[in-house]
Design goal:
The chain is mainly α and about 600 residues long. The protein is built from 25 helices and five strands. It is about 65% helix and about 5% strand.
């Protein structure tokens, strides 16, 4: 049930005035000019740089890059947020292109500067300088990346190539999926709104929406197939040029994560996949299906004694009340996000699908996009994105060059928030029927980040490998997707009713430079479950440790972040502990619904 009419319209869209009041504002125009000034300063510095950097040179580099980052991020965030809320706006598209061109104009200079940094061989002796000490991790990462750097001209060529290659193909996928019209029962829907119907309480609506969605993809599948081929083909070329063993190896390097940790996580996941298949088979039985669950019933909700349909206002009250049991600081941030219009709630034509949070640490704010329709699942999505906002809150005291966290830990606070809200709801359930519904809702979400992420990881692995020697048409991609789903979901799903177009609607495949943006969700989910277990054991004393851990995510490896909570990620034991918590919920759900 979509409830637009019951909301306070003033609360339903985000306000971007803290960035700029508009493209015609003096502040926006002045920052555009200031960005060019910073670019000129960086280019001039790079042209005069000595082979061996002095302490003063290093400090100047930090200051130049900090000033550039501050202006460039502010401009790009404003343009990107406007683009996400309306991909069809021509003014936004024009400004986005101008910014990309400006940013690429310093690629050669940045390559020269970073190459000079890689030659620093006395960093420990310079740490008495407070600015250098503060940026030790930032500098060390660049120094260690030296073996993967290319010549200045090639670095510039790659940056310029991406403007008209992977970046453009990413934008094409966003545009097509946000504007395609999908017809169902004589009405037109956006892709986001038709996908939201997978949560509808009417089984016929869920089924009709699924088939309408698949039919809608036929209109755009070939163009988007060219997009994913181009993006993954580029990734293969760039990883080879940079002397990485594979695209995955390159991704793990930028993720600050070891292959040992990734392997340990998937060893544990593969061990527990049959438990999730058991849950899906049981849900299928409850819904009167004999051969496993059809895809369009993955998000079917069970009946409850206390079905809730949320408005914006009631979702806020619900989240604030439940997060006060964990931390007043988190609850206060949630209130601020609602009251200060950080959130764009409802689906509409031209708005991208899904949900995301954009941290703006230099303003001590974030912005959240979602496609809210009033379901409990959408409230959990809000909790998830507000977790990202809290993560941004924890890192806002860092220097701007120290505010980038890697993909795996990026999903920690978001999944921790999900765990809190669902655990609270389950604990407060007044009847077994409601409790079973809530546990099943949580298992839906966890199944997505275990089974679905496994299928997406396996799909991307095969696509990248095959893209080395062949072009994959839409039907080829569909076949790979189906086979990946069969392996990941096992006999939990009806293999005759799967989803051959999951490669098309997931924007993560099209984020240029962010390959394998799938396993971080499984990492974040399981890491968060383990942290929540510590919170339940330690109580309030855990919160300062949690805040310290989140703050460290921008200046530490994944493994070192986990050590703050006394966790070893490189062996399957920790991951199995988190998965066992979910396995126990599967057993409880089955027992409650026998």
């Amino acid at each position: 049930m979509i409830i637009y009419q019951s909301c306070n319209n003033k609360m339903s869209k985000w306000n971007l005035d803290a960035l700029y009041s508009g493209y015609e504002s003096i502040e926006f125009k002045n920052d555009f000019k200031a960005l060019q000034v910073q670019i000129d300063k960086i280019n001039n510095f790079a042209a005069s740089i000595n082979e061996k950097l002095t302490e003063e040179d290093i400090v100047e580099i930090i200051e130049l890059n900090s000033n550039f980052d501050l202006i460039a991020r502010k401009l790009m965030i404003f343009v990107s947020l406007n683009s996400s809320s309306n991909t069809t706006d021509s003014t936004t598209v024009a400004h986005h292109t101008k910014l990309q061109n400006l940013a690429s104009s310093i690629s050669k200079s940045m390559a020269i500067i970073e190459k000079a940094i890689t030659k620093i061989d006395n960093l420990p002796t310079l740490l008495n300088n407070e600015i250098i000490k503060e940026h030790e991790f930032y500098l060390t990462e660049i120094i260690n990346s030296g073996k993967h750097m290319l010549s200045d001209d090639v670095e510039e060529a790659i940056s310029l190539m991406r403007l008209n290659a992977s970046n453009s193909f990413r934008d094409l996928q966003r545009f097509l999926t946000s504007t395609v019209k999908i017809e169902m029962n004589g009405e037109d829907y956006t892709l986001s709104s038709i996908r939201n119907l997978s949560y509808d309480t009417n089984p016929q609506v869920r089924k009709d929406a699924y088939y309408a969605e698949l039919k809608g993809y036929e209109k755009i599948k070939d163009a988007v197939a060219f997009s994913i081929n181009s993006i993954k083909g580029e990734a293969n070329v760039v990883s080879k040029l940079r002397n990485f063993d594979s695209v995955l190896d390159m991704t793990l390097d930028t993720s600050r994560m070891s292959k040992e940790t990734l392997d340990a996580m998937f060893i544990a996941i593969n061990k527990y996949l049959p438990k999730f298949h058991e849950y899906l088979r049981h849900k299928a039985k409850l819904l009167n299906y004999e051969n496993g669950l059809p895809w369009y019933e993955l998000f079917a909700t069970l009946e409850s004694d206390d079905d809730q349909v949320f408005t914006i206002e009631s979702s806020k009250d619900y989240l604030v009340k439940n997060f006060k049991t964990f931390s007043n600081e988190v609850a206060e941030l949630i209130e601020k996000a609602y009251d200060d219009n950080w959130i764009d709630f409802y689906p509409r034509s031209g708005k991208v699908g899904g949900a995301f949070c954009c941290n703006i640490p230099f303003l001590k704010q974030s912005r959240i996009l979602t496609n809210f329709d009033g379901s409990l699942s959408d409230v959990v999505t809000l909790a998830h994105e507000l977790g990202h906002a809290y993560h941004g809150h924890c890192i806002e005291s860092h220097s701007i060059l120290n505010t980038s966290y890697s993909m795996p830990v990026a999903e920690t606070a978001s999944n921790f928030n999900e765990t809190i809200i669902m655990s609270a709801a389950i604990k407060d359930a007044k009847t077994n029927k409601t409790k079973a519904m809530l546990i099943e809702s949580m298992l839906q979400d966890v199944t997505q980040v275990i089974c679905d992420i496994t299928s997406r990881y396996n799909f991307e692995t095969e696509v990248i490998e095959r893209r080395k020697s062949e072009f994959l048409f839409a039907d080829d991609l569909g076949e790979i997707m189906i086979e990946s789903q069969k392996v990941a979901y096992g006999n939990g799903l009806d293999h005759t009713i799967l989803h051959p177009f999951m490669w098309l609607n997931k924007s993560h495949y099209y984020a240029a430079g962010l390959n394998f943006y799938n396993f971080p969700y499984a990492f974040g989910c399981l890491f968060a479950k383990g942290l929540f277990a510590q919170f339940e054991k330690d109580g309030e004393s855990f919160v300062p440790k949690y805040n310290k851990l989140l703050k460290a995510t921008t200046v530490c490896s994944v493994e070192d972040v986990a050590k703050i909570a006394d966790i070893d990620l490189t062996t399957p034991q920790f991951w199995e502990m988190s998965l066992q918590l979910m396995s126990d919920y599967v057993d409880e759900f089955i027992e409650l619904t026998k």
